[in-house]
Amino acid sequence: MPELPEVETTRRGIAPHLEGRRVTRLVVRDRRLRWPIPEDLAIQIEGQLFERIDRRAKYLLMRIGGGTLIGHLGMSGSLRMVPAGTPAGKHDHVDIELDSGMVLRYTDPRRFGALLWARADEPHALLGKLGPEPLSDAFDGERLYQLSRGKSMAIKPFIMDNAVVVGVGNIYATEALFAAGIDPRREAGRVSRQRYQRLAEEIKRILAKAIEQGGTTLRDFVGGDGQPGYFKQELFAYGRRGELCKQCGTTLSECRLGQRSTVFCRQCQR
User: Fold this and answer.
1) Which candidate among 60, 61, 138, 253 keeps its CA 20 to 30 Å from the CA of 166?
2) Which residues pair with 49 in a beta bridge?
3) Which ranges of 62-180 does DSSP label H, i.e. alpha helix?
4) Which residue has better confidence, 223 or 246?
5) Looking at 2, 5, 134, 157, which residue is catalytic?
6) 151 shares a domain with 91
7) CA neighbours within 13 Å on the CB side: how many for 118?
8) Are residues 160 and 226 in the same domain?
């Protein structure tokens, strides 16, 4: 699943090709995504200029005309630029043709993503209850410490809660907990303020590094310019069940938390 660094990489990849460009035509081959693509989307965006491409959590916010085109990549989606006339593949569900001769193409084999419309004067419900961005000043160890008091849930699903902080998905939660030396099974309410401060620092460091390096290379992810990300070789825990810990040499263990696979080191994480 594309996570925050992959979505930010996509934003950076497509923004220079979209901003200031006018939509000449919308081609929808299949409306059946996680939520159906609005029937009137062509009326909303054709002939309009893309003003700015933003990101909130894992949502791409494409400001155009009288509102915002909201994109979510779901489990296997990608947005990329292709030249006009490029033949569409089986899973290329949407093309947004531009006056530059380029096309913003949405591809999604599993169709769990979304393209939705929100009017400028009506903020979309999906964006209403999100926590702070992890790389912003609004997110720090003190926030984690205060929100975790009295929580008996494991720390990993706690930091993956979008109401606590957005964009800390399975890959980067696993990696941040490893870097901070915290057992992902530990009760959130029993982690000290000092350890939360370290964890927040590691979340920020790892996400910033992943964004800088172009996101994690996963099977279904393609960057906005058609190039894959380059972060996978930096992973210390995620996807390494049964391999040796790069720090201590212990065989890495696996458990399931919140229905997600979690790899950790019993020696390095306490």
Assistant:
1) 253
2) 22
3) 141-148, 155-159, 170-180
4) 246
5) 2
6) no
7) 20
8) yes
Q: Yes or no: say if 240 and 252 are a contact pair by the CB < 8 Å rule.
A: yes
Residues 149 and 118 in one domain: no
How many distinct structural domains can be found in the chain?
Answer: 2
Q: Considering only CA atoms, give the Rg of the chain.
A: 20
Tens-place pLDDT, residues 179-218: 999 999 999 999 999 999 999 999 999 999 988 887 554 3
Burial (CB < 10 A; 0-12, 13-18, 19+), residue 227, is middle
Does residue 110 share a domain with residue 80? yes
Q: Phi first, then psi: what are they for 4, rounded to 5°?
A: -50, -45
Q: Please check whether residues 98 and 181 belong to one and the same domain.
A: no
In the annotation, is 205 catalytic? no
Tell me the average pLDDT across 147-165.
Answer: 97
68, β-bridge pairs: 63, 118
Bin 214: left if φ > 0, else alpha if -120 < ψ < 50, else beta.
Answer: left
Check which CATH number belongs to the domain holding 62 and give it. 3.20.190.10
Tens digit of each residue's pLDDT (9 = 90 or more) over 2-29: 889 889 988 988 999 999 999 999 999 9
117, 41 contact by CB (below 8 A): yes
Same domain, yes or no: 105 and 146:
no
Please check whether residues 85 and 45 belong to one and the same domain: yes
Residue 136 lies in a domain: no
Catalytic residue, from 11, 58, 105, 156: name it. 58
In the set 3, 6, 97, 202, the catalytic residue is 3
- Assess whether 97 carries a catalytic annotation: no
Q: What is the value of pTM for the model shown?
A: 0.88
pLDDT single digits (tens) 67-76:
999 999 998 8
16 tagged catalytic: no
